[in-house]
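Researcher: Structure prediction, please.
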Amino acid sequence: MARRLAALFGLVGTTALSAQSSKPLESREEAPPIQDNSFLIEEAYNQERGVVQHINTFFHATRGSAWTYAFTQEWPVRGQSHQLSYTIPISRIGDGSVRGTGLGDIAVNYRYQIRGSEKVAIAPRLTVLLPTGDSRRGLGSGGTGVQVNLPISVELPARLVAHSNAGMTYTPRALDTFGNSAAARSYLLGQSVIWLAHPKLNLMLESTWTVSHEVIGSRQTERSSELLLSPGVRGAIDFASGLQIVPGVAFPFGIGSSRGERAVFVYLSFEHPFGKRSP
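Model: Predicted structure follows.
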């Protein structure tokens, strides 16, 4: 389970890990709601000009000792249309004979936000996954990978916002723990619904379906799938300096063939200006 969960984080965590913040709801006469802090599903909002975000996530499977911590930093490039970010994961693997703690595969991400209507945002992402994790210890894929993801965010009535994801990861020369090589693919479909119970307190329901092909021998892979449902909550603390701190927690669990898999997900982000912002 731990290696499959690590693969899931690699697919969505660049996810969770690459959710950003344009603010289409600010036109309302109220404090702007939280919009850039989803957990497993990527929101289609890039960082605003002059604002940097630091994201910390921690995922712990309730069975065994496996966990994954990831640090993501997101930077706008000139304006809001372009964004660069990177994700550094550290994991503990505890499945059977495969055990270890260390650095995983570092992700370097580029996102382009397509300008849609006031209520719809689209931001395709391209990621290069660097083989910095030790594949012999189950901490990395063993080869350079490419990942694409298409997040779409839609504002709905009744203070609801929906986020949809479709993504794929391809590693031409992935390695297993014995050094066997094969081409590996992973696919992701994800959906979330966020209820803005308060502009600074949101209830979340996220779901992800992943299909992964793991190397099991020379030019051989084995298919596995995972369906997770994740209820969660997030809040925001704003400071006069422009700093915003967003803590959150979720409790992913498997359904269907993934029944019995449970985990705890903890989120903490810091967002603040880094230069003179445009009026």
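Model: The CA atoms of residues 22 and 45 lie 5 Å apart.
Researcher: Thanks, that helps.
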